[in-house]
Amino acid sequence: MKEKINLVMFIGEFFLVILIITICTCCHGTIGHIVAACSGVGLIVMLYLHRILLTVCMPEFDTVKFGIKNVLQGVFTHTLPPAHSADMKMIISDIQRIADDSKLISDDIAYMLDELSNGNLTVQSSIEEGYINDFKIILDAIYNIKNELIKYDYKG
Description:
Elements: H1 2-26, H2 30-72, H3 86-117, H4 136-155
Helix pairs in contact: 1-2, 2-3, 3-4
């Protein structure tokens, strides 16, 4: 991403410099100098925007990449730093919520399986409402294991 920003900004800056040189060499008089001055101001603004993109936007993209990487690797305990823009705040907030919810579910699964392995056949999830969509089948599978163990325990 950083390379693309640098390339696009460099192309814009390069053509502004060409425009300034062309205007200065071809146009003489007051209008030529005014256009050259406006182009110079445009170049300064473009350089400033380039710097803002690299110092403000790139760290936010890096934060999003870091958060997604952690969630994909199953690391749910890292807290992400706050963002500046509203869109990035929303994305970072969603990543943090996914990480937090995943941590709750993984802790609950570990608790239930640990209890089952210790013979507690009355174990229940404390966050059943958190098991939605694809997570629901995990809870159902744990309860199926529990029910089979109960059947086996009564037959045994």
